Automatic annotation (TrEMBL):
Major place of residence: membrane
Catalyses which reaction(s): D-fructose(out) + N(pros)-phospho-L-histidyl-[protein] = D-fructose 1-phosphate(in) + L-histidyl-[protein]
Domain PTS EIIA type-2 span(s) in chain numbering: 4-148
Location(s) in or outside the cell: Cell inner membrane
Listed InterPro entries: Bacterial_PTS_Sugar_Transport, PTrfase/Anion_transptr, PTS_EIIA_type-2_dom, PTS_EIIB-like_sf, PTS_EIIB_2, PTS_EIIB_2/3, PTS_EIIC, PTS_EIIC_2
Membrane topology category: Multi-pass membrane protein
Domain (PTS EIIB type-2): residue spans on this chain: 167-262
Domain of life per record: Bacteria
Transmembrane segment boundaries: 298-319, 339-360, 380-406, 418-442, 454-473, 564-584, 604-624
Record-given protein name: protein-N(pi)-phosphohistidine--D-fructose phosphotransferase
Top-rank EC class of the record's enzyme: transferase
Record keywords: Cell membrane, Kinase, Membrane, Phosphoprotein, Phosphotransferase system, Sugar transport, Transferase, Transmembrane, Transmembrane helix, Transport
Amino acid sequence: MITSLINENLMCLDLKVTNKDDVFDTLSEFLLREGKISDKAQFVADLQAREAQGSTGFEDGIAIPHAKSKAVVEPAVAIGICREGIDYGSEDGLPSKLFFMIASPDGGADHHIEVLAELSSKLIEDGFVDALLAAKTPKEALALLLEEKPANPAQESAAEVANKGFLIGVTGCPAGVAHTYLAAESLEKAAAELGYEIKVETNGSIGVKNSPSAEEIARADAIIVACDKQVDMNRFAGKKLIKSGVKEPIKRGKQMIENALQAPAYQAQAGGESHQAPAQKTKATSALYTYLMNGVSYMIPFVVTGGLLIALSLAIGGVPTEQGMQIPEGSFWQPVLDVGVVAFTLMIPILAGYIAYAVGDRPALAPGLIGGWIANNGSFYGSEVGTGFIGAIIAGLLVGYFIRWVTSLNYPKVMQPLVPIIIAPLSGTFFIAVIFITLIGAPVAGMIDSMNAMLVNMSGGNIIILGMILGAMSGFDMGGPVNKVAFLFGVGMIASGQTQFMGALACAFPVPPLAMWMSTVIGRKMGLFDQTEIEAGKAAGAMGFVGIGEGAIPFAVRDPLTVIPANVIGSMVACVMAFLFGITNTVAHGGPIVALLGAMNKPVIAVMCMIVGAVVTCLITVTLKKYRLVKSQAAELQVS
């Protein structure tokens, strides 16, 4: 396939680019000149849309932008080399130098996947990337790409004689693209070098390919599952098995095979798919992080969609009132706001549901979603507010582990088909409802009453201490119960004519989302955020402008030990500054938009307080993330 899609006219060995957009523009121009695409703007837009799903920048200076597009006349691959390298948002944080841009017709065959599969075998060859980067002419580069290494008869015969057995591999990454095939190629190469035959199943975006048969599984000596997505594990019951992320075999293929051959037999779980083999000793923190990230990945589209719709409607159609920012009756922007609210309402249940799904598989999804809804709706347990994203995390984990236990029980054969569709979801729903309504709900309601009483008692005290407390509460859980208590206290103070409390809170509320936007702008160049976070950062900035703190939630869930303390400190700074400057606010809302619309007495100073708080949070976030990244890289170098 690759031999028919590349020619010398589609190569540029001296790209003059400084960023990702320049790469898209320049290489797309090559495709346009060769008649491979008909509409450059459309194709670039489709490249950007694919990039929004996850960065196509990989390790070792390689990036593989690709898209299926209506603008593609015939499939082709444009290749570029930027020897200085650019910040592409690659996974290892290093500059990208080698670019393969794959154009595939929309509605046609999956050329980009086939090309990626072929490129994978080249990219893992020792010295291939260095040789390609050193190519002087397009002809030389093309020869390297098309070169087929001659088989070594001595090695082949040795492999035949020393065939030690048969292995099965399973690979798959969330996007189902490059890493899936790089991992498969690496396992095949490592198995051949160790004298084993191997069959590797790829779980890519074009579906599952090369699945082993029951007979092949029966004769396999070991199974290597290198997957960041769910696969059917029960078929491997009784076989030696290890499981890892998809990147692991790319770096340590031989070691994984040797570990698999020493692993104990895998025990299947009742009720469906399984995530992790007991043989694999994964740290609890790593597993927990994986579960949280599964929830975040599904939650982000709801945060972005709902947040942007709400921000747009309030920024353009909203007016400040005593009840907060309101859309005038009959306005075009009211249904836009309503749709945004729907997305925001679903955000917390989605987070809980897919955390549960990550822990307990499909049977945990429904009770996880229901648990998230209950967690976010205080009316179930007599509270004015729900437990927010923290409650969603608790609900998701509780449901997931409960369902994992339920599905692990031994059931009569006649009942086994009912476990994933009736027994597990029903018992999980009952379990989480009882837990939240009877055990968690009462303490939450009591905590809210206590915090509100504390704030009322302190309302006439030292403004700096009160500002620190209100700021910390507003930045802690971004729309959760602690944040809501501070907000309701501010609303109550407006009713009694004391508008300085809402003035201080209005400066603190937008700090977390504005800070996350700033952090992604700065941290992108340092490799601190992936492409999904960068896109979420843009939405967070828009939400911060209209005072919607929930825009920072995906960042807090992904990295709570960094983001939450940073948010708390920055919000405290903004809140204390607002008290000291005497900022007042007559509406129950916050953010720069409230100041710009005249609801705050000192709008310029108010916005300055918000910006200072956001900058403080941003600097703390970036510094902590950078420190942890450097520490992690040093640890990896030491291991390797």
